[in-house]
Specification:
Layout: E1 2-6, E2 10-15, E3 22-29, E4 36-40, E5 48-50, E6 56-58, E7 64-65, H1 72-80, E8 86-90, H2 103-112, E9 114-120, E10 123-125, E11 130-134, E12 137-142, E13 147-154, E14 162-168, H3 171-178, E15 184-186, H4 190-195, E16 208-211, E17 214-215, H5 224-237, E18 243-251, H6 255-268
Parallel strand pairs: 4-8, 10-18, 13-18, 15-16
Antiparallel strand pairs: 1-9, 2-3, 3-8, 4-5, 6-7, 11-12, 12-18, 13-14, 16-17
Helix pairs in contact: 1-5, 5-6
Length: 269
């Protein structure tokens, strides 16, 4: 796989899912080998943070890099579209949630255009099986010449139950099958989250809301929840900064386990 950037600078704005603040993300083309860099344009000195596993500061209801929160949706889109070199300048502490999925980021990037930069991307290729487990959650990597994710979630709620989806990474299929899947949340957790300073920007416009007796939000896919989990996993694993060749089997995984697993893959890859 070759390195890529975007054709020209573009911007997108919206409310941060957890901060509730209006924020603008400016996407700026970057030179070959520079990687993905987040910039806090609103802070003195415009501090820069590389999209790298070593900079992950928290995985509480999202993946956070120091002073930049909820990065997984844009990173998922960038990985799927093979964008390896880019600066993302923000005027706030969090990426805009938009509609709660990665599709708006994909649409923006596809509209502005993608440029190949010639040089190859490094590759993490799984040779021997690797596993990470915690509290009934599990991630397994098996050898493969492609990047494949098989994900299963289960909730003790009749209308959700068990959802399973298998996805082989392909740009066109990502845009149609994974990118539109939105983040989701349970209504009985809202008050507690807001007390913790989380979900301050959450609404029916940017999340699938789930009540005790059913979905409040109309679903885009009957298995939208597990598809969004795949979206998040791709975004988290992208922090390896490499092409990935493995079949990832995920059982009820979340951001904390995703990041721990990515660190293990970095060691074995």
């Amino acid at each position: 796989m070759l390195q890529h950037t975007i054709r020209e600078e573009v911007s997108i704005s919206g409310v941060g899912m957890h901060s509730g603040k209006n924020v603008r993300a400016k996407l700026i083309p970057s030179k070959v080998g520079s990687g993905l860099t987040f910039i806090r344009g609103d802070l003195p000195g415009k501090p820069r943070t590389k999209a790298d596993l070593t900079n992950v500061s928290s995985t509480a209801r999202g993946t956070n890099l120091g002073g930049i929160n909820t990065i997984e949706h844009i990173l998922s889109a960038l990985f799927a579209l093979s964008i390896t070199n880019l600066e993302i300048e923000l005027n706030g502490p969090e990426l805009p949630a938009l509609d709660g999925s990665s599709r708006p980021y994909c649409d923006l990037i596809m509209k502005t255009g993608i440029i190949s930069q010639g040089s190859k991307v490094k590759c993490v290729k799984v040779i021997e099986p690797a596993i990470e487990m915690n509290n009934g959650k599990c991630l397994i990597a098996l050898p493969s010449d492609r990047f494949v994710v098989s994900f299963m979630i289960n909730y003790p709620i009749d209308f959700i139950g068990t959802q399973f989806y298998k996805f082989e990474l392909n740009q066109k299929k990502y845009i149609s099958e994974i990118a539109p899947a939105r983040t989701y949340g349970f209504m009985d957790e809202v008050t507690s989250l807001k007390r913790q300073g989380l979900a301050l920007g959450a609404s029916l416009k940017n999340a699938v809301a789930i009540a005790k007796d059913g979905y409040i939000t109309k679903l885009r896919f009957k298995d939208e929840l597990v598809r969004h989990k795949i979206l998040d996993l791709i975004g988290d694993l992208s922090l390896l900064g490499a092409e990935i060749k493995a079949h990832i089997i995920a059982i009820r995984s979340g951001h904390d386990l995703n990041i721990a697993f990515a660190k293990k893959l970095k060691e074995v890859g």
